[in-house]
Protein: Flavin reductase family protein
Amino acid sequence: MPSSDTSDLTGVFRTVMRRVASTVTVITAADAKEGLGREHGMTATAVSSLSMDPPALLVCVNQRTLLHDLMLRGPGFCVNVLAHDQSRVSAAFSGSVSPEARFAVGDWRTAENGLRFLADGMASLFCRNTATVPYGTHTIFVGEVVEARQHDAERPLLYQDTRYCRCEPIDAVPA
Ligand SMILES: Cc1cc2nc3c(=O)[nH]c(=O)nc-3n(C[C@H](O)[C@H](O)[C@H](O)COP(=O)(O)O)c2cc1C
Structure:
């Protein structure tokens, strides 16, 4: 029997969203002020394609995070799509490893614009921060994609119902 109980709307919403499978990314940002040297990366699944012309995406980041602080100050950010075998990277960038030691997990390089990107992931999308919309606990950041790098990995890491998963193609759609 489908649940339509609205007395615990937040709880039901959380359960529903937990069951929605999402592709795992790590978003990186760095402090714009030279010499401060602050950089950070954080695991995020609230990432969506927004527009093709101009190419743009949006990400939703909790206002309480360090990444949020850096994204508000900096000119841009990089969305790194994780490959199916990179659950360790996701775990590191969502708290299992301290912020200072995170970039030792995975093949992280530094681009000319100073942003870190994951060279052995699926793809890295460098974005210019073009709009921010605070909403509730989070802020929506709109990023215009200024550079897109595809790496060797072809399948993304997914997250569903608090577990990491791989995507598996369905051979044929039943008639
Ligand atoms: C699979 C997964 C997806 C996540 N997606 C998001 C997200 O889209 N936005 C967000 O603000 N936090 C997200 N988080 C939570 C942050 O990664 C986590 O809170 C992180 O540790 C932030 O704190 P820190 O970087 O200061 O340690 C996600 C966590 C996991 C494990």
Observations:
- The longest strand covers residues 123-135.
